[in-house]
Amino acid sequence: MKPVEQVWPPDVAAEYRAKGYWRGETFPALLRDRAARHPERLAVSGGGATWSYADLARRAERFAAGLLARGLVPGDRVLVQMSNVPEYLSAVFGIFRAGMLPVFALPAHRRIELDHLLRKSEAVAILTERRIAGYDHAALASALAGEIAGLRHVLICEPGQGGEGLAGLEAAPEERELPGDPDPQAVAFLQISGGSTGLSKLIPRTHDDYIYSVRESARISGLDGGSVYLAVLPISHNFTMSSPGVLGALYAGGRVALCPDPRPETGFRRIAEEGVTITALVPPLALKWLDAAERLRPDLPTLEVLQVGGAKFLPETARRVRPVLGCTLQQVFGMAEGLVNYTRLDDEEEIIVTTQGRPISPDDEVLILDDDGTPVAPGEPGHLLTRGPYTIRAYHDEPGANARSFTEDGFYRTGDIVRRLPSGHLEVRGRATDHINRAGEKISAEEVEDHLLAHPQVLDAVVVSVPDPHLGEKSCAFILPRDGTAPAPAELRRFIRGRDIAAFKVPDEIRLVTSFGTTAVGKISRRALRAALRKDHMEEG
Ligand code: J2J
Questions:
Q1: Alpha helices of 474-525 — where are they, by DSSP H?
Q2: pLDDT computed for residue 150 by the predictor
Q3: Which residue is closest in CA terms to ligand 1's atom 25?
Q4: Predicted-complex ipTM score
Q5: Among 429, 439, 437, which Cα is nearest to 284's?
Q6: Nearest ligand 1 atom, CA 416
Q7: Residue pair 66/103 in contact by the 8 Å Cβ criterion
Q8: For an engineered disulfide with 258, which of 46, 157, 249, 420 has Cβ 3.0 to 4.6 Å away?
Q9: E strand or H helix at 251
Q10: Is residue 106 in contact with ligand 1, taking CB distance under 6 Å?
Q11: Atom of ligand 1 nearest to the CA of 242
């Protein structure tokens, strides 16, 4: 198995420790500590569970023991594909407790994505629910186990049985001795990248670096023992997990409340039932919630903060949050690779509605460069590069991508175009890379093009992002058919669905063209071609 590591230069690591960013905390120790400090306090509610911290810790231990009893060993990677159910938390903390590494997949992922993540991470096990939103994940997991030699365990969770449905792995802890706490500098898990070229890359995050970002995020978002965080977005997304997310809520000794679906009606009901103080949405959902709140006038007296992030939140919508929902907006501009920016709760309203926040750490280094790599003048837009105490220096096992995505001195090229205000707040202006940010879901144009090219009647395909009033951005595929044959858009859509990829990657719009513009083909880069077609689309409407 290839080792999973994340390494900062030793002097830099020493500085992060000396400054108290990296405190040697680990996930197993964190839950044990909270369960010892306030065992009876509620940690998780929803999906049939009302679990105290002691319950959660005990369940995690039993799951850890169950994994070991099945023959998994510390260091093993376990792919987790679960929805917003309480068992997700006992399973993930159980995997940590057993010294193993979760690899986080999204419920929307299908065969193509899972196959890639499983192989790349060399996972020995897949943990998923029998069904999520009607899709038979158990069947897919079994099929994958038949094809991938290293994938030896298919663990199927049946949520909603009070936590007793965790793949039959609720072994009694006394049957197995659990390992000691991991090295805080070791990789705790593999998160997945939004991916602008090809398939998702794996992001190794250490206990020390991630817990630092979680701890500070919880502080910046005002979490304490009385906070109730409602998990609406997919729970394994980096935003929901850590900004401050479910981990921030548990770090602060607060409670995680689960939302079974993201509809505004469901959200308002859960906020009222649980006394939710903070929740997080992507911009298109925030817009839906605002429209629904104007209609339904829900009474949400406990809600203090609505976080919005994952894609650009337009100021005109942002301005509606306080008057309509009666809470403070917090814009969050983050990335699974590290850097997270927040507007602060006490920032002026104008800053809150027009910027995407400023970095967590005084040691988050931010460069804003022009195309030639020269720093732009203050206030001018440019490419955002960053490095710091919780931003990775490398993806797992991606020498090519690492050479492109990181500078020699360790800065991560985010691909985002931003400008910086005198206050240090960043405004996201656009993106230099070719992914589509569809309602916060990142889609690689190249990946979708490759699927389209597999169709026998497709000579070439170019996928671009185009503005959409509901989704922010949607995807449009321009198709150049082979001579004399033109596949119908509906047939192409069927074809690409049949490729077994996440549904959000299927192009929203398909346009057949006879050329990509005479000067374009072969002469300009693929990126310039995408830009030209995007412009055509916007002009033609
Ligand atoms: C514009 N673009 C944004 C924003 C992310 C917290 C919040 C979000 C993510 C996330 C995350 C944006 N305005 N407010 O991991 O911890 C786009 C940028 C960025 C990319 C990262 C977190 N917030 N984006 O969205 O890894 O283009 O993380 O580089 O999924 O989303 O995507 P992802």
A1: 489-497
A2: 96
A3: 310
A4: 1.00
A5: 439
A6: 27
A7: no
A8: 46
A9: helix 245-251
A10: no
A11: 16
